[in-house]
Amino acid sequence: MPAMRLVDEKYPGTAVERMLASRERVRSLGEELNGEWESVRQKLLWAAGLRDLKNVRPGARCRELAGMGYTGHAFNDNNHCDATTMLGDVAHNENEEGESRVKGIAIGNRLGPGIEIASLPELGEGGSWSTCTNGCHLDPPQDVAHIQFKSRIAFKLVWCPPSFESFVLVDDDGAFLNSGTPTGQLPPLMQRRLNFELVKGSKYAIEASRVGAQ
Length: 214
Prior knowledge:
By secondary structure, the protein is an alpha+beta fold. The protein is built from 7 helices and 5 strands; from the N terminus they run H-H-H-E-H-E-H-E-E-E-H-H. About 30% of the residues lie in helices and about 10% in strands. This is Beta-galactosidase.
């Protein structure tokens, strides 16, 4: 008899088992998070349940890349820093026009095909994507995960002020999961600063500020 699916009543689009498995992967990481940035980013993709897919059709536009499962942008800019684990039922949800639209995100924002291509099946039911974090400073969060997919995040990457050389990984409640100080060619400093600005004043900024002050 198949196991009963765990359901998050507040955010029913959450793939709960997949989310919990993702957080366990995050907690299992040690010195790997202090290595060369691209290697660290690949570990973050693994923890999120995502494949490292950078080889796509040359000349493809940004929206087309997402539909092909491209993950080269994941955790690599200021915004695509939420590891979201959603049920297959909602993976094809779009950002619909109206009062519930995610502000600053294109109408449509069709990610379903890319989610199917990029998601690692061994992490559990559902799929994963590196969704946009903008809107998470509001309470409750008004970002892609919580609005478009009606899902909690497995984890969020936040760069730590004032130097923005280290990052923390926090869960949907802003609780600390892990941290790292990578080396090599990091995302541009402006992107790392803007990443923190997107969470500033929210529960997601607390651990980044604490670690950055040490």
